[in-house]
C-alpha cells in the first residue's frame, strides 16, 4: 500500500509546487478566508499551509490519509457538477507517503483538535491538541527517501519560483481570501489582504501601474462569461509567464485559449511576443472536463469553437480591430 502510494506519487506530486497547489486547493475548498504559507529550501525542506477553514474531526483527520477518501463527491454524477477543487481524495495520502507529514486540525464544534503524524506513509502518532478552528499541514523532507525524484528537481531557487507561482495563482483565483506567504526563515514575507475585487487583488500582487497599463475585457455568451485584462497592441512578453486563465475560479492551462488570444492579437503583436492577459471564465461545469489528469492544469472544453470565437472576437474588438474568426 505504501509502495503503491509512492509509485503513484509522481502522478500527483511532481515537485514542491504540486504540494503547494494541492494544499492550497484543500484550504480553499474548506472555506478558508485566511491562509498562511511558509516554505523553506524551495519547498523540499518545509512546506506548511495553515488555514482557518472548516477543519476536521478526529475520524476525518485519519480518514483523509486513506486513498480515495474524499468528502467532496457523493456520486459519479456529481463529478460533472463539480465546483470544488479536489475530488479524487489522492493528494494527502500521496504527499504523506513521500515526506514527513504532520496534520493539525480542529472542527468548530470539537472541544479538542487532532494531530496526526506520518513518516513516509507510516502512521506514527495520533494525539489530541488545542488549536483554533482550521487545519495546518506541514510537509518536511519531501522526496528525501526518493533520490530518483529528488534528482529530477531543479535548484531550490527554481523550485521556489514554481511554488510561488502556485501561491499567486490561488491568490488571483480567490481575491476575497487573505494570503500570507513567507519563504526561508527570516522576514515578514508577502501579505495580500482580503481584496474587494479581482482588480484590487491584481494591484496588490503586481502593483497599480501594472494593472493600469492593461485594458479591461468583458464578453458574454449564454453559456460562457468572460472578464479580464489584457495588454495593449504591440505590448507583450517573450514568454507566457504573464498569461493567467481561470475557469470557474480554477487556475487552468489551455492551449485553446492561448491560441485564441494569439489569434485575437493577430498582427498587433511582434512575432515571438505573448500578450499579458488575465482571463476569468465562468462556464457551466457540465461543459468542461477538469478530470483530464490528476495534477495537470490543462482543461478540456465541450464547445471548443464557441470558446475560441468568443475569445478571438472579444480580444480583437477590444484592440479595435475587425475580428477574423477562422478555424
Ligand atoms: P480531495 O481534495 O480530492 O478530496 P485530498 O487528499 O486533497 O482529496 O483531501 C482529502 C480530504 O481531506 C478532503 O476531501 C477533505 O475532506 C479533507 N481535507 C483536506 N485538507 C483539508 C483542509 N485544509 N481543511 C479541511 N478538510 C481538509
Ligand atoms: Mg485536494
Automatic annotation (TrEMBL):
Residues 202-320 form the DNA mismatch repair protein S5 domain. Keywords: DNA damage, DNA repair. It comes from the Bacteria. One of its GO terms (molecular function) is ATP-dependent DNA damage sensor activity. Signal peptide: none annotated. One of its GO terms (cellular component) is mismatch repair complex. The keyword Glycosyltransferase does not apply. GO terms for biological process: mismatch repair. Belongs to the DNA mismatch repair MutL/HexB family. This protein is involved in the repair of mismatches in DNA. It is required for dam-dependent methyl-directed DNA mismatch repair. May act as a 'molecular matchmaker', a protein that promotes the formation of a stable complex between two or more DNA-binding proteins in an ATP-dependent manner without itself being part of a final effector complex. This is DNA mismatch repair protein MutL.
Amino acid at each position: 500500500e505504501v509502495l503503491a502510494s509512492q509509485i503513484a506519487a509522481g502522478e500527483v506530486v511532481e515537485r514542491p509546487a504540486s504540494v503547494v497547489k494541492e494544499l492550497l486547493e484543500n484550504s480553499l475548498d474548506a472555506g478558508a478566508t485566511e491562509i498562511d504559507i511558509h516554505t523553506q529550501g524551495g519547498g523540499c525542506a518545509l512546506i506548511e499551509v495553515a488555514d482557518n477553514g472548516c477543519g476536521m474531526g478526529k475520524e476525518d483527520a485519519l480518514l483523509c490519509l486513506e486513498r480515495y477518501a474524499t468528502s467532496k463527491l457523493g456520486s459519479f454524477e456529481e463529478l460533472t457538477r463539480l465546483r470544488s477543487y479536489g475530488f479524487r481524495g489522492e493528494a494527502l495520502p500521496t504527499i504523506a507517503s513521500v515526506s514527513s507529514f504532520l496534520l493539525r486540525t480542529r472542527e468548530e464544534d470539537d472541544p479538542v483538535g487532532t494531530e496526526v503524524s506520518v513518516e513516509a506513509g507510516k502512521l506514527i502518532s495520533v494525539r489530541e491538541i488545542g488549536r483554533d478552528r482550521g487545519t495546518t499541514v506541514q510537509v518536511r523532507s519531501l522526496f528525501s527517501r526518493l533520490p530518483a525524484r529528488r534528482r529530477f528537481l531543479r535548484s531550490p531557487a527554481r523550485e521556489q519560483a514554481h511554488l510561488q507561482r502556485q501561491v499567486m495563482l490561488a491568490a488571483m483565483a480567490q481575491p476575497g481570501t487573505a494570503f500570507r506567504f513567507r519563504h526561508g526563515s527570516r522576514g515578514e514575507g508577502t501579505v495580500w489582504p482580503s481584496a474587494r475585487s479581482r482588480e484590487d487583488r491584481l494591484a496588490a500582487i503586481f502593483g497599480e501601474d501594472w494593472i493600469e497599463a492593461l485594458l479591461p475585457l468583458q464578453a458574454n455568451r449564454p453559456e460562457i462569461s468572460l472578464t479580464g485584462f489584457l495588454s495593449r497592441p504591440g505590448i507583450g512578453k517573450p514568454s507566457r509567464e504573464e498569461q493567467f486563465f481561470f475557469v470557474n475560479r480554477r487556475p487552468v492551462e489551455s492551449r485553446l485559449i492561448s491560441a485564441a488570444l494569439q489569434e485575437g492579437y493577430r498582427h498587433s503583436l511582434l512575432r515571438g511576443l505573448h500578450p499579458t492577459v488575465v482571463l476569468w471564465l465562468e462556464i457551466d461545469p457540465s461543459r468542461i472536463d477538469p478530470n483530464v489528469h490528476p495534477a495537470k492544469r490543462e482543461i478540456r472544453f465541450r464547445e471548443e469553437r464557441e470558446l475560441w470565437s468568443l475569445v478571438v472576437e472579444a480580444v480583437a474588438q477590444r484592440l479595435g480591430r475587425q475580428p477574423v474568426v477562422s478555424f
